[in-house]
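Researcher: Next entry in the queue.
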Amino acid sequence: MNPISKFTNNRVVTDAGVFLFLLTLLVVGQWSSVFERWELGAYDLSLRWRMEKPANSDKVVQILANEEDLNQLGWPLSDQVLAKVLNKLHVAAPRVIGLDFYREQPRPPGHEELVAAFKNVPETIAVFKFGGSKAKMVPPPPVLDGLERSGFADWLVDSDGVVRQGLLYLSRDGRVSSSLALRLGLEYLAADGITAKPDPVNPKYLRLGKTTLRPLGAKDGGYAGSNSGGYRFLLDFRGGENPFQVYSFLDLLEGRVPAEKIEDRIVILGPGADSVKDQFLSPFSLGGSSENAFMFGPVLHAHAVNQLLRIAEGGSAQIITINEFFELLWLSCWIVMGLIIGRTPFNTVTFAWRTSLAGVGPLLIQIILIHGNIWLPSAVATLGFVLAAILATAMASHEERKQRRMLRFLLDKSVSPAVAEEILANREQVVGGGKIRTQKLSASVLFTDLVNFTPVAERMEPEVLMLWLNEYMGAMAGKIMVNGGVVDKFIGDAIMALFGVPVARESEEDIDQDVVNAVSSAMGMWDILEHELIPAWKKRGLPEISMRVGIHTGMLVAGGLGHEERMDYTVLGDTVNIAARLESLKPGTEFTIQPSICRILISEAACARLGGKFETALVGDMVLKGRSETIEVHQVLGVSKHND
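Model: Structure for this entry, 644 residues:
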């Protein structure tokens, strides 16, 4: 195999290449905002499914103009109505009032009354529209201009139309404006001695109480830079869609709102009717529990100011994101996990449920972490896991097909179904890296040959000879396979069989059993030759013949020999040579071999592992052809009487 093929067949290298490919692909996708909507959708899901803590919602009260209010009071609400509402609230002594109605110009009747109310109710903070490239600015009420009693009502809308971020500041032409939520929060907190200060470490950051609000970066969390203007923070929507007390305008004007529900609180006035298009998509809009698709603007302001109060008072933490290094590490871990899952042996059902179960892991972890105010993006991690699992599975399937193609060189040999099943079950031990593994293992080798085959064959017609020889070979191979052996090769009239390959034996008991199986095969050959083949041959006028068997056990080297497209599984080593020499050993004057229709000679190493299951006779210490050392030879005479 050439170096390039060897390199590409290395599983670690292949998996590393897939890992780097997926990591690069997904990171580029994140940077280019391809996955932004997926990540934002997962963020919404985590907000909806998280375990809730009770929100500090009793400090914020909403007075919303519903459809009944608009039918009776008219729309747009007149300055007179707003003046009555402000004066009514002032009596109940709230800390601060947020007016989420634009009043850049009079809405008669009652304009003078509203101007007077703005002066007489100093806790009122009105809204204006900061505007931008696509929207014009709507100024605050002229009477409040320059008094720092107004805040902008603008929201940053994400690429999918959902509001997930709150704003503290916006700037244009060197002028910095504060949001309504920040104005309301600071006014409320001032009574408790909490003020906004620059962070001592980074003066560009705002510090409320003991907490520094770090602005959301353009690429923090699941964002890819689509929104980067202003001092942004993630809304946590703690408590659900609208956990705040809500009253209508008529409730207030007709005296149905208890004063104690208003006293010392933040009151937000605004539209709360579907006919007034002051509505926004929120994380609860898609798949949430609400029957309404939108969240009213005043409710968003209530969530933002409530969150600022909790942060300033130490009752909650700002939702934070992890840095890019840990995001990369997080994504890498899920890609690696996908590769591991995909590489694990499987069937279709187990792969499906394992992938599904592990695939939701990133989202489940995100749901848990969002409860601790940490946003760890999960959509790309899930995608990385699934893609890695699919690719790893595809590679594993390809490798398995390649392994099976390599295994055909083994399975094409004469093996029993049980041995074939064992080979397939342990194929990782047998093949790897696109080739048959070379192993050093302990095995038993059996050689058998016919006595005086050449002169017998010369007297027979070719067709008759082949039929006769195939009948013999088929019967002998059958006995080998029945006893768990592998017919390694047919060499003319000789057979070479192996016991204990290609799956290496790990225990002495298994090695002993291989020897017993080899001798049992030889005894079976003897029996079938003497009682079936020879009687049948006599009737058909075919020649009778005897056979020799040699068996030895020991260490040898097993592996594939040849070309990738034409490879032979074989074994090499002294164990093979000794078995062959035992089979071909010729009687001499210095030792005696008992005559038999099937002579079975085994080495001392093999004889010692039989456990007394066969009757044997010592032949003697022999010097085999091609060897200088002697070897103790035994002859198998039959099955032991004690083993019947």
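Model: Confidence is low (pLDDT under 50) at residues 1-9.
Researcher: Noted, moving on.
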